[in-house]
Amino acid sequence: MARPWRGVIEEYRDRLPVGPDTPVVTLGEGGTPLVRSDALSDETRCDVWLKYEGANPTGSFKDRGMTVAISKALEEGSKAVVCASTGNTSASAAAYAGKAGVTCAVLVPKGKVALGKMAGTLVHGARVLEVEGNFDAALELAQDLASNFPVTLVNSVNPHRLQGQKTAAFEICDALGRAPDVHCVPVGNAGNISSQWLGYSEYLNDGVIHEPPRLFGFQAAGAAPIVEGAPVKTPQTIASAIRIGNPASWDKALAAAKESEGAILAVTDREILAAYRRIAREGMFAEPASAASVAGLLRLAGEDRLPEGSTIVCVLTGHGLKDPEWAITGAAHPPSIPADAHAVAAELGL
Ligand code: F0G
Questions:
Q1: Are strands 47-52 and 34-36 parallel, antiparallel or unpaired?
Q2: pTM, rounded to two decimals
Q3: What is the distance, to the nearest Å, from the Cα of residue 314 to the centroid of all Cα atoms in its chain?
Q4: Whose CA is nearest to atom 10 of ligand 1?
Q5: Residues with beta carbon inside 6 Å of ligand 1?
Q6: CA 20 to 30 Å from 106, out of 18, 85, 261, 344?
C-alpha cells in the first residue's frame, strides 16, 4: 500500500540511536532523487547517478543529521542548540530547532554566507551572530560555548549528526539494489564523507551489500588541508560551503578514503564552476560546493582511474538557489521586448 515518506528516523529507525521515548522532530527529510546523468555516463563510459540532496526540506543534506541531533537534544532536555556554519548547517539547525521549539544560536563567518542560506537561517528564527573570523574560528567558538554553557552543539562533531547523515548511503544502496563502485562527495568539515562510510560499512557488515564503494572526497584547491596534510590558515574558494581550513572530522575522512581504497583529492574553482554549469544544463541546480563531486568525477575520468562500466554516484549536497550569485554572474542579460507574439518569435528566431 502506498504511504508517504516518513523522514529518515522512521524510515531507518532500527539503524539510528532512537528509542520509543525519543521525540521525533522531522520535516520529512531524505528520500531524495537519485537521477541518472546520461551525459556524464556517456562521457565517462560509466553509469553515473546524481544524488540530489538539494531536495531536502531546507535544501541540503544537513537535514538528515539535524533531525537526529535535534530529536536527541530534545530527549536529553536541552533548551538551546548552537552551531558554527558556512550557511547550510545553520539553516537546517534553525528549521529543526524551530519545529522543536528550542532556541537556536548560530555563529557564521562575517560576510561569508551565501544569500539563500542566510535567508533560511533568519526566517526560521535563529539568533545569528557574525564572527570576525572564518568558519574554523566560529567552530572553535561554538565548541567552547557548548563546553561551558547549557547549550547543545549540533555541528557534525555531534555523533547524532553523523548517524543521521549515513542514511544517504542506505538510500543509494536501496535504490540501486547494491552499492555503487565509486562514491564522490565534496569535503568541507569532513563529516559527510565520514557518515557515508559509516552507512556503507553498516550495510556491508549486515550483508545488505556485498562490496563497498570506493569513496572519493573532493576539497577545493584553495581549501584543501587534508590533501596538503596541514591546516590552511586562510582557506579560499568560490565554493563557500567548503571554505574550511581545519576540518573537525579530518581523521575519519582519511580513514574512510583509506579503508574504501578511495582518496581525498583537490579540484580547482575553475573545475568546480565548469561542473556546476554542466549539471545545471541537465536540470540539476546544485550550489558550487556540491559540484565539487562532479568536478572530481571528471578529474578521475580524465586520469583514466575509472574502470569502464563502473556504477558511480556523485552527491549533490545543496540546492543551487542557496547561492544564486553564480547562476547569474556571467549569464546574458535577458533582452526586453514588447508584449507581442511576433516580437517574441523574432527574438527567438522561430
Ligand atoms: N556541500 C555543502 C553544500 C555543504 O554545505 C557542506 C558543508 C559540504 C558540502 C561539506 O560537508 O562539512 O560534512 O564535509 N557545510 C557546512 C555548513 C560546513 O556549515 O553548512 P562536510
A1: antiparallel
A2: 0.97
A3: 11
A4: 188
A5: 60, 62, 85-89, 156, 186-192, 241-242, 287, 289-290, 317-318
A6: 18
Cα separation of 344 and 212, whole Å?
Answer: 53
Q: How far is the CA of 89 from the centre of ligand 1 (A)?
A: 7
Contacts of 203 (CB under 8 A, 6+ apart): 169, 170, 173, 179, 209
**Atom number, ligand 1, closest to the C-alpha of residue 194:** 13
Compute the distance from residue 139 Cα to the ligand 1 centre, in Å.
13
User: Residues near 229 by Cβ (< 8 Å), separated by ≥ 6?
Assistant: none
- Residue closest via CA to ligand 1's atom 12 equals 189
pLDDT digits (tens, 9 = 90+) for 319-349: 999 999 999 987 889 999 999 999 999 999 9
116-139 pLDDT tens trace: 999 999 999 999 999 999 999 999
Q: 161-178, pLDDT tens digit by residue?
A: 999 999 999 999 999 999
How many Å apart are CA 144 and CA 155, to the nearest integer?
13
The predicted structure's pLDDT at residue 2: 76
Closest CA to 264 of 292, 233, 301, 304: 292
The alpha carbon of 136 and the centre of ligand 1 are apart by a number of angstroms equal to: 13
